[in-house]
Amino acid sequence: MRDLVIIGGGPAGMSAAITARESGIQDILILERDGQLGGILQQCIHNGFGLHKFGEELTGPEYAWKYEKKVKELGIEYKLNTMVLDITKDRVITATNSSDGIFELKAKAIILAMGCRERSKGALNIAGTRPAGIYSAGTAQKYVNTMGYLPGKNVVILGSGDIGLIMARRMTLEGAKVRAVCEIMSYSGGLARNIEQCLNDFDIPLKLEHTVVEIHGKERLEGVTIAKVDKNRKPILDTCEYIPCDTLLLSVGLIPENELSKKADVDISSITNGAIVDQDRQTSCEGIFACGNVLHVHDLVDFVSQEAELAGKAAAEYIKQGKKQTIEIAIKTDGKIRYTVPQVITDSKDVTLFFRVSDIYKNAKICVSDGDKQILSKHRPKLAPGEMESITLKGEQICGAKELYLSLEVQ
Questions:
Q1: Which fold, 325-411?
Q2: What is this structure's pTM?
Q3: Rounded distance, CA 303 to CA 48, Å?
């Protein structure tokens, strides 16, 4: 029997482990499938990390090292190259590695911190062949930043998420020509600072409401045909444009890695594809917590670390005190607000609700209501899907509430 087992040794897993140790839990084990701690940050060699959390600008490996160093200083146990195969609802973990073989662990509490993965070409249904030269943006990032390979010289990027924007700049700095970044939506899914620093600073065109409709080439990619889309996101065929290129990078969304969560019968949100959690990041399965990108995709790793601290502290309290639930308040949204995390409140203490909107809204008012009673409203000059927003509710504001409703009033 282990007190706390954390699945995933990235920034979320390490931050949760450190907080749990500082909260008095000594018996902690991190299980990480890679050969080193740090997760995806190890290949993110650009700067921009740590401004919120540490007040300084760090690269991904530098940010990860701050946590890895602390894990080692605290003597927190971890197993690398260890793949978790199964989790049960009663917190039995089955895992495997080359030294221990297949083994089982029973835990008093589990924190899920498996991160997320990229959507692949198979999810896009683009017409054409399967030539070499098509990569997810994250795969291209690993080739360039950690292996020293340049995937191609003439590049088109589909999707304007942050990884795609960052790789547009990275490929340019390595001598490639980025012909265009195509985005099917009418807005970019990335941070405003990345649009400015990664595209505008390098004169890389961003084609909104455009998508790739055909891939050309047999052995190696020779080019792509792009087209403008209508309001239903269907290609307008008379707007087709052929762009010669030898590389297509896909930055078309991230999916939380929740196969293990589903095996444990954790309730999953159809919107975030992550677990449904309360304010402590406890899932529908008692004693199983979730944090970071496995819960919902974050725009900044600083917020991943902060969320993991919540989960680590709550898991420590659960190990010492058992289940503690005083209320149950569901949180609903109006569609303009796509989702919130948490999705349910189980304690009448102050709680911060994180949320994303479904479109760009200007001069909007965020309203929180309990039935006909409005308990909070906040004005925002601009809201965008690519940036996480948050509001904090005081314990006295939610005391006695049955169901909270978040909506946007747009003027």
A1: Immunoglobulin-like (2.60.40)
A2: 0.93
A3: 13
What does the block give as tokens for 227?
């087209």
What is residue 411's predicted lDDT score, i.e. its pLDDT?
Answer: 77
Do 233 and 269 touch, CB atoms closer than 8 A?
no
What is d(CA 27, CA 9) in angstroms, rounded to the nearest whole number?
16
The span from the CA of 193 to the CA of 87, in Å, is: 39
| Contact assessment for residue 30 and residue 79, using Cβ atoms and an 8 Å cutoff | yes
**pLDDT given for residue 122 in this prediction:** 62
CA distance 230 to 238: 12
Q: How deeply is 252 buried, as exposed, middle or buried, from its count of CB atoms within 10 A (0-12, 13-18, 19+)?
A: buried
Q: HEC profile for 342-374?
A: CCEECCCCCEEEEEEECCCEEEEEEEEEECCEE
List CB contacts of 231: < 8 A, sequence separation 6 or more.
none
Query: What's the CATH fold of domain 120-252?
Result: FAD/NAD(P)-binding domain (3.50.50)
DSSP per-residue codes, 226-246: EEEB-TTS-B-GGG-EEEE-S
What is the pLDDT at residue 363?
Answer: 93
Ranges of the chain whose pLDDT falls below 50: none
CA-CA distance, 376 to 387, in Å (whole number)? 21
CA 398 to chain centre: 28
